[in-house]
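Comment thread on ticket #2218

A.B. wrote:
> Attaching the input chain for the structure job we discussed in standup.
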Amino acid sequence: MAVTSRIAAAQDGLLAALQAQAAGQGSPLAGVQLTLGWPVDQQAESCWVDEAGSAEQAFASTTSPSTAEDEETIRLTVRVLVRRGELSYKEARDRALAIAGEVHEALRADRTLGGAVFDAVVVGLDLESGVEGEARLVGVSVRVEARAFLA
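C.D. wrote:
> Ran it. Output below, let me know if you need it in another format.
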């Protein structure tokens, strides 16, 4: 059966990789809320694979009967939010960046996202901050790019 896109499998695989990373001894992800999509009941420290993503597809040939060379480049974002009133900006920033760093570690442990893609890497991040009531907010968006074969 032909696959239209591997984007859903990549999202699921990325979440599973983060969950596996969180289970590791002393992981900064331990105790962090991990979800697929925006966490409705957001906790003080949350990390989620964003619902939005994009994919570009390149087909080997429109006349070839084989789809073995058809490729897809998938772009996903992992979002981290630290919402803690007791922390200074520096403390909240450093905590958010430590959580975001675990995305790198998860991909180092499994660049295939459980077989969903053949390669996934972090390609950048964005840092944001703000205040909500008494709570300091620091967010990090980690951009991930994955490549997959369509079959």
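A.B. wrote:
> Thanks. Noting for the ticket: The mean pLDDT is 90.
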